[in-house]
């Protein structure tokens, strides 16, 4: 069985706070904002609700049901307990930028779709 190689994480919590500090000019407020957003997302997911960030995506809590697993080497049945996890579904704007259908804007809102011009 081959392992899936994941790309390295290049933006962490402190990096995100630094980006916010550069935009707002206040380091303390930027760190508080990142903490507040993370806390709100985690609390909402732990309550069993999803979190939607328009354009970016949706975080959905999901439960994997308990099941029995058959070990092919020993032929024993192993009970796998129920597990909880989170699924991320990317938003339409993010997918468009990933596919190259839309350019990343230099300024303004990254997540809003550009308005269609009237003909």
Compute the average pLDDT: 83
Low-confidence stretches: none
Taken in chain order, the helices and strands follow as HHEEEEEH
Structural class: alpha+beta
**Total separate domains:** 2
Q: Strand order within the widest sheet?
A: 1-2-5
CATH topology of the largest domain: HU Protein, Chain A
Number of β-strand runs: 5
Largest sheet: 3 strands, antiparallel
Which architecture of the largest domain per CATH? Irregular
Beginning-to-end CA distance, first to last residue: 55 Å
Tell me the name of the CATH homologous superfamily of the largest domain: IHF-like DNA-binding proteins
Query: What proportion of the residues is helical, as a percent range?
Result: 25-40%
The CATH class assignment of the largest domain is Few Secondary Structures
Outline: extended
Count of separate DSSP helical elements: 3
What fraction of the residues are assigned to beta strands by DSSP?
15-25%
**Backbone CA Rg:** 20 Å
């Amino acid at each position: 069985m081959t392992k899936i190689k994941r790309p390295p994480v290049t933006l962490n919590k402190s990096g995100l706070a630094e980006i916010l500090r550069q935009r707002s000019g206040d380091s303390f407020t930027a760190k508080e904002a990142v903490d507040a957003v993370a806390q709100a997302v985690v609390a909402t997911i732990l309550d069993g609700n999803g979190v939607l960030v328009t354009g970016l995506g949706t975080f959905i809590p999901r439960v994997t049901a308990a099941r029995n697993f058959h070990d092919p080497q020993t032929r024993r049945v192993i009970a796998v307990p129920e597990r909880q996890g989170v699924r991320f579904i990317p938003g339409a704007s993010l997918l468009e930028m990933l596919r190259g259908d839309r350019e990343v804007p230099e300024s303004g809102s990254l997540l809003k779709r550009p308005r269609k011009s009237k003909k």
